[in-house]
């Protein structure tokens, strides 16, 4: 079997959850199941400079992974007008002759890439994984209103509230085009039931939308921190620092705990690249106001076990719904209970009172109250640790995907 993977970035440049899983899935299918193929990651000048001679660039020593330099992306319409850049891929795709094309994101690629694939590989079956809500929501795929409130799903009135400069026709045509382009795929996958329900509620074909959980590479769990007094008061944040991930909410919760005289420590691990000056200023002010909080900056995958060994809890204070955050799987792999918002895909992954705790989303006071209870309730941490189930492995995820690919190809043959 030959497969072509398209992702919106490469984890060697930006180690986001989607990129990490997509690459891990591709490599597992290749190394463990004999699947041949190519992993293409779209990048822009923010990630890698454009080099003369070709829009295709190598990365590392891998011969079946490449970067595709694409500019001029229209984020509202998920459109890529760089037809020259896309056309340069046609000979590569034609030579590969993929049986399956698995698109993990339309960012940078645009809906035009789908048309290119259909022409260059007319016999290929198409799979799309909706790792977030970009096809539904032009507001950065977050399903958040412009003032930061949770949005129940796209409607003309809601979308015009976020995009008053856009006509109703712009918004309607965006939704129709994306539903038409991706509705022509053989399968549409979501990593959570919550996301599947959102796509179906927005008018997507229920019979083609199915849940396919993400997996994580195995690793030895980091040892738990010694706590002779039984006090579990070290909280860790892992991931990109931006306004959607809720770092400011966690800092304010920490400030409130300090003001109440509750001894604790909060450590935020993650870079803050590509953020606005106003966000950076607010984050700096939040750190200065929270005496027990520290920001340690970006980290690499090899550093994660050592960082996990220093915390008792992993906090996921995201202010949006989330879908299937990698950090939850990482926390469970290292046997750390998770405190997260009580909505969306993150709440689906974490069983309140069993392997973690739910807190009111985007509510610093509510989060501070849950964190205080986590510290002060005797035996709670041990009970939650005992309730943690091993996360789905990338090997099992690969087997499930391979079964899906075969089923999809079998349906074509039939």
TrEMBL record:
Domain of life according to the entry: Bacteria
Keywords: Glycosyltransferase, Transferase
Domain Glycosyltransferase subfamily 4-like N-terminal: 15-217
InterPro entries: Glyco_trans_4-like_N
Gene3D superfamilies the record matches: Glycogen Phosphorylase B
Annotated protein name in UniProt: Glycosyltransferase family 4 protein
Organism: Paracraurococcus lichenis
């Amino acid at each position: 079997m030959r497969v072509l993977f398209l992702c919106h970035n490469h984890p060697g440049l930006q180690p986001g959850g989607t990129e990490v899983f997509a690459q891990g899935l591709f490599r597992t299918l290749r190394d463990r199941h004999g699947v041949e193929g190519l992993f293409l990651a779209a990048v822009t000048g923010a990630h890698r400079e454009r080099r003369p001679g070709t829009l295709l660039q190598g990365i590392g020593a891998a011969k079946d992974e490449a970067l595709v330099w694409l500019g001029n992306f229209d984020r509202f319409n998920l459109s890529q007008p760089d037809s020259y850049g896309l056309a340069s891929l046609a000979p590569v795709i034609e030579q590969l002759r993929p049986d399956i094309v698995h698109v993990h994101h339309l960012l940078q690629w645009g809906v035009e890439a789908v048309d290119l694939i259909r022409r260059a590989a007319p016999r290929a079956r198409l799979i799309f994984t909706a790792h977030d809500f970009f096809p539904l929501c032009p507001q950065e795929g977050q399903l958040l209103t412009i003032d930061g409130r949770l949005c129940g799903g796209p409607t003309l009135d809601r979308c015009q509230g976020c995009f008053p400069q856009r006509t109703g026709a712009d918004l309607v045509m965006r939704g129709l085009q994306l539903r038409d382009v991706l509705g022509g795929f053989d399968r549409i996958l979501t990593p959570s039931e919550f996301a599947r329900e959102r796509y179906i509620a927005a008018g997507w074909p229920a019979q083609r939308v199915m849940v396919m959980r993400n997996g994580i590479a195995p690793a030895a769990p980091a040892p738990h921190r010694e706590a002779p007094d039984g006090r579990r008061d070290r909280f860790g944040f892992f991931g990109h620092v931006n306004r959607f991930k809720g770092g400011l909410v966690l800092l304010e919760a920490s400030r409130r705990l300090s003001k109440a005289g509750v001894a604790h420590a909060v450590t935020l691990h993650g870079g803050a690249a590509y953020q606005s000056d106003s966000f950076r200023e607010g984050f700096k002010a939040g750190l200065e106001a929270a005496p027990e909080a520290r920001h340690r900056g970006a980290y690499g995958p090899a550093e994660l076990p050592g960082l996990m060994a220093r915390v008792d809890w992993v906090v996921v204070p995201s202010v949006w719904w989330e879908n299937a955050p990698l950090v939850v799987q990482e926390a469970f792999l290292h046997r750390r209970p998770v405190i997260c918002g009580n909505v969306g895909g993150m709440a689906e992954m974490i069983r309140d009172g069993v392997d973690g705790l739910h807190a009111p989303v985007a509510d610093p006071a509510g989060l501070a109250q849950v964190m205080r209870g986590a510290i002060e309730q005797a035996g709670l941490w041990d009970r939650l640790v005992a309730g943690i189930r091993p996360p789905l492995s990338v090997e099992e995820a690969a087997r499930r995907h391979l079964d899906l690919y075969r089923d999809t190809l079998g349906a074509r043959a039939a």
